[in-house]
Amino acid sequence: MLVRPLTPADATLYRALRLRALREHPDAFTSSWEEDRDQPLEAAAARLAKHAFWGGYQGSELYGIVGLERESRAKNRHKATVVGMYVAPEAAGQGVGRALMEALLAHARAVGVQSLVLTVTDGNPAATRLYESVGFRSFGVEPDAIRVDGRSYAKNHMHLDLGHAP
What we know:
There is one protein chain. Strands 1-2-3-4-5-7-6 form a seven-stranded mixed β-sheet, with helices on both faces. The longest helix is centred in the middle third of the chain and has 15 residues. It is α+β, with helices and mostly antiparallel strands. The chain contains five helices and seven strands; from the N terminus they run βαααβββαβαββ. Helix 1 crosses helix 3.
């Protein structure tokens, strides 16, 4: 498995895997398949250009994705949010998620991010275990965070201090 940064040239594969994730696991993401489906390919390319994303490849096939969106305002530029983590079921259990997170964490440290946050849908133990294994800790659960087909889902808010205290 090769993990590498994604660029706008990867937009087609990235968009296809992201749409698959949103369609197959709508409760795992705040974005919806319907909203992202209607966005042009250029929107995916622009997202890859603006933020740091990684892909987990086996040959030419993309099986996993994750992104890091850094805050842009001066007062909170020390923070970033982990977004869009997804590993295709056929690649589950092969260390793709861990490799993606390790690449993201190495990049975050290298660019001076001091505080990482993410959310994970309550009831997703595999994702929660992965995040905890790399140091994330829960700081609260938001009830009724998203609704999918009329059903309410809570989101577990997690934080990782990268140890770059001012």
